[in-house]
Amino acid sequence: MTSTLTIPQVDLDPYTDESIADPYPLYEALRDAALHRHDTFVSGEGVGLTDTLNKAQKGSSFTSDPPYHAYVRGLVARHLKPRAMADINGYVTSWADRLVQDLVARKSFDAVQDFAVAFPLAVVPDLTGWPEDEGKERLLAWASAGFNAFGPMNDRTQAGLPLLGEMAEFLHRMSQPGNLRPGSWGAELVSEAREGKIEDKLLPGLLGDFLAPSMDTSVSALSIMLWLLGTHQDQWRRLREDPSLIPSAFNEIIRLESPLRGFTRYVAEDTELGGAPLPEGSRVLLLFGSANRDERFWKSSEPFDNARPGAAQHVGFGHGIHACVGQALSRLEGQSLLAALVRHVDRIEVKEPSWRLHNTIRGIERLDVTFHGRTS
What we know:
The protein has helices at 17-21, 24-29, 51-56, 68-77, 82-85, 89-106, 111-128, 137-148, 155-174, 185-194, 203-211, 213-231, 233-241, 246-256, 288-291, 327-344; strands at 3-5, 41-42, 108-110, 262-267, 271-273, 276-278, 283-287, 345-350, 354-355, 364-366, 368-373. The protein is mainly alpha-helical. A hairpin with an 8-residue loop joins strand 9 (354-355) and strand 10 (364-366). The protein is globular, with a radius of gyration of 21 Å. Mean pLDDT is 88; it is low at 1-8.
């Protein structure tokens, strides 16, 4: 079977330092995607560019295909659905409030380490059952290495290979009974494996689904959130005056500066793109950050507008059957922090960011921020 899509042909490299630092001119030349066509563009053969690493990462919820995909995704999704978030809403909200108040008192700080890293690093490992005697500082490095590995076998990917080995060893160790905090999401998975409800071999990947994807993407979104609010004072004032815009504002942040640049898909049948044949066994790269600035869909796509109509239609969390399983948690984190900012911050002052060079994550390396606290 051969199917056809009409898409212009271009010859560009999305992994150069220049393309990573300023990706949007490149994205403008590459628009259409294949997120609806999961039977032709499949995920079960991995979603990266390197065959060896794709094989090592197979079996997770986002590197699997139906019908197995629905089963393995369900094991993680039950803890991450919007209704499940209601159980942890108070915990996340109070943590966000404390963090923002502390930074208001401190006044000046780095948005990445002191704000964006601090929040998910405190919340996500606790929910998963991270043992108290295990340091959390390696988790961010592991997550970064994991996402770099979805790119080509360049220097960034190779530098992270030892870290991927460390993460694999840790996840295998945490898959043994008694290593995760009783009552946690992770401990429940381990218990179910002992009861024969889950295959033992799935545990490391499932625990990794909880931990790694929720870290680097959250760090990116939360630091960029401060940058956008600090460089668009009119939008910040509008948000302070109307906090009901918080959900829309968070969607607009994800749309405009999508944390995930994109993943590949394996071509499962002969097809064509823009008249160029794509044989079975080749790969396509789907760029979410490009789709979210598609001028054919988004009217005036580049300005930051926290009341943008239809902002929730972005694909920053993916789309279709592989939409991000943890997006409800990400929304809870982001919206809780936005609400805390509205309560405690009068003005957000930012300096020029330094952008991170990463194969898969669109993110800031460092951003100096000053909070001017509210006086009433």
